[in-house]
Amino acid sequence: DVVNLERASEIGGRNSGHFVQGHVDGIGNIIDRWADDDSLFFKVQVDSDLLRYIVPKGFIALDGTSLTVCEVDTEEKWFTFMLVGYTQSKIIIPKKEIGGKINIEVDVLGKYSESAFQTLLPRIEQLEQKVKDLEQQLADKE
User: In what residue span(s) does the Lumazine-binding domain sit (predicted)?
Assistant: First the structure.
């Protein structure tokens, strides 16, 4: 099969794009595609465990290509992305049809944020309980 290959960014160099590590976090199913002038849109259905990391105007890597998400529907579990004419001529995604599969790498910064939040959550819950207990003690003294 044809694949996308990109050179890695230099460490310490300017980074004006997204962080792509080259991992495949999951696979999506192309459920729609349409053209609008020279732009090509795709709608991809994914599992909820991946969708939680996909946000409008956020980063996503699809078949190794760093792209920007357009829309997200959490109820129907899909997102859309768009390819401009130049990008269409440089990558393999435009060859994919409805019903095709696409490799997905979600935003690593979202995964790091979730991990950090999960680490802090028990401490936050402890502090909230302590405040509630102190408020109750004050109320009892009044």
Answer: 19-117
**Domain map (residue ranges) of the chain:** 1-106, 108-141
H/E stretch holding 88 reads: helix 85-88
Query: Which two tokens mark 66?
Result: 């760093």
Q: What angle do CA 68, 118, 114 make, to 5 degrees?
A: 5
CB 84 within 8 A of CB 97: no
- Residues listed for the chain: 142
Return phi, psi of residue 107, to 5°.
Answer: -65, 115
**pLDDT digits over 90-141, tens only?**
899 999 999 999 999 998 888 888 888 889 988 999 999 999 999 999 999 9
The token pair at 51 is: 């969708």
Rg of the chain over all Cα atoms, to the nearest angstrom: 21
pLDDT-based confidence at residue 36 (cuts at 50, 70, 90)? very high
Classify domain 1-106 by CATH architecture.
Beta Barrel (2.40)
